[in-house]
Amino acid sequence: MSQPPSPAPAPASAASKKSSRVVAMLGRLAALAAVYAFFAFLTPGTKGFMSDANTQLMLQDIAVVAMAAIGMTIVIIAGGIDLSAGSTIALSMITTAYVLNLGPDGAKLVLQHPVLLPIAAIAAAIGVSTLIGFINGALVTWLRIVPFIITLGTMQMARGFAKLVANEQNIYPPAEVQDLWISRVLDPARTVFTWPFLPVAVWLVIGAAILTTLFLRYTRLGRHIFALGSNEKTAVLCGVPVARTKILVYMIGGLFSGLAGVLFFARLGSIGQPTEAIGYELFVIAAAVIGGASLLGGRGTILGTMIGALIITILRNGGVKMGWPQYTQEIVMGAVIIVAVAIDNLRNPRKS
Amino acid sequence: MSQPPSPAPAPASAASKKSSRVVAMLGRLAALAAVYAFFAFLTPGTKGFMSDANTQLMLQDIAVVAMAAIGMTIVIIAGGIDLSAGSTIALSMITTAYVLNLGPDGAKLVLQHPVLLPIAAIAAAIGVSTLIGFINGALVTWLRIVPFIITLGTMQMARGFAKLVANEQNIYPPAEVQDLWISRVLDPARTVFTWPFLPVAVWLVIGAAILTTLFLRYTRLGRHIFALGSNEKTAVLCGVPVARTKILVYMIGGLFSGLAGVLFFARLGSIGQPTEAIGYELFVIAAAVIGGASLLGGRGTILGTMIGALIITILRNGGVKMGWPQYTQEIVMGAVIIVAVAIDNLRNPRKS
Amino acid sequence: MSEASSAGSLLTVNGIKKSFGPTQALKGVDLTLARGEVLALIGENGAGKSTLMKVLSGAHASDSGEMTLEGAAYQPTGPLHARGLGVCMIYQELALAPHLSAMENILLGIEPTVGPFMNWRETRAIARRALDEVGLTALDPAAIVGDLSIAEQQLVEIARAVAVGCKVLVLDEPTSSLTQKDVQALFALVRRLKAKGVAIVYISHALEEVEALCDRFTVMRDGETVGQGVVGQVPVSRIIALMVGREVADLYPRSPRSATEPILELRALAGEKFPKAASLVLRRGEVVGIAGLIGSGRTETLRALFGLDAVAAGEISIHGNLTPPAGPAVRWAQGLGLVSEDRKTEGLAQNLSIAENLTLSKLDGLGPWRFVRPSRQNAAAEPWIKAFPIKCQDGEQPIEALSGGNQQKVAIARLLHHGCDVLLLDEPTRGIDVGSKAQIYAWIDKLALGDPAAGKAPKAVLVVSSYLPELLGICDRIAVMTRGVLGEARPVAQWTEHSLMLAATGQDQRG
Amino acid sequence: KSPEAAAPAAAGANPAPAKISIAAIPKATTHSYWKAAEAGARRAAAEFNVTLEWQGPLDDSKVADQIGIFNNLAASGVQGILLSPCDDKALAPHVRTATKRGLPVAIFDSPLDGKVGTDFINFTSTDNKAAGATAATTLAGLIGTAPIHGGQVLVIRFTEGSASTRLREEGFSTALAATPGLTIAAQQFTDGSMAGAQRVAETLLGNYVKNNKLELAGVFASNQPTAEGTYNAVKALRDKGVEVSAKFVGFDDSTLLIQGLQNGVIDALVVQDPEKMGYLGIKSLVDHIQGRPVEAYTDTGVTVKTKANTAAK
Ligand SMILES: Nc1ncnc2c1ncn2[C@@H]1O[C@H](COP(=O)(O)OP(=O)(O)OP(=O)(O)O)[C@@H](O)[C@H]1O
Ligand SMILES: Nc1ncnc2c1ncn2[C@@H]1O[C@H](COP(=O)(O)OP(=O)(O)OP(=O)(O)O)[C@@H](O)[C@H]1O
Ligand SMILES: [Mg+2]
Ligand SMILES: [Mg+2]
Question: How distant is the Cα of C437 from the closest Cα of chain A, in angstroms?
Answer without folding.
Answer: 12
